[in-house]
Amino acid sequence: IWVAAFGQVAFTLSLGMGIMFAYGSYLPRKSDVSNNVMITSFANCGTSFFASFAIFSTLGYMAQSLGISIAEIPNVGGLGLAFQTYPTAISLMPFAQQVIGIIFFLCLLTLGIDSAFSISEAMITAIVDKWKVSKTKATAAVCLSGFLIGFIFATGAGLYWLDMIDRAVAFFGLILTGTVALLIVGWVYGAEKLREHLNSVSEIKIGKWFDWLIKVVAPALALFAIIPQFIAEIAGKELLGIKITENVLEYPIWAELIGFWGFIVMPIALALIFGFVFKGKK
Hints:
282 residues
């Protein structure tokens, strides 16, 4: 549950995937960073907290309508919640089923589209800054690549690939990249240097506790949550009596190697390759 919580926070705040780096590069150098961070974080987490009332009240309504307990409702997590449980709950509503259903899926569509905007922007900005190509060409290349890769999710095994890649990226990937970023910022760039800059441009001043939070506390908590999960994935069994995932033992080994471990190792390998190949090149 802690890995799921870490992954949820990282994904909704667009951490660990380069999006905030891209957006931050567009801001003036004297932008009030601390104030913007506070507003963004509390607004985002407040929205998630508010959404939980909608989710759990819907599940409660559905359980009562079907005469079962919430624990007996199938597909209450992940993709099943949005595409199976919620539509079923909407179909049980006494009025305006069609209208509410249309609104719900329109909201889901717009959320997906604006998420795609931000994720694409991270790659587009990096390509434009590194190779000085036009933003139009970079956008076309990124969108076309994403479109072609996305065909794998339209196959008969699409949901299975999505499940494995989602586990690799949204759970493990974001936490790993976030941990590496914390260590690099804290120990290589210097947390003290970052704190001095933040205090020089922000109304909200940050104390020395920030240095140790970046250097030690946050990376340690992330690793404490994720290492047992990795052990469970490698062992392919329950850890401390807790079943980590539903599907680890159901996929063939070759599928796990490509869909799960491949999408953990591949980005790290590509980052190292690009780092060495293009080091110092403008």
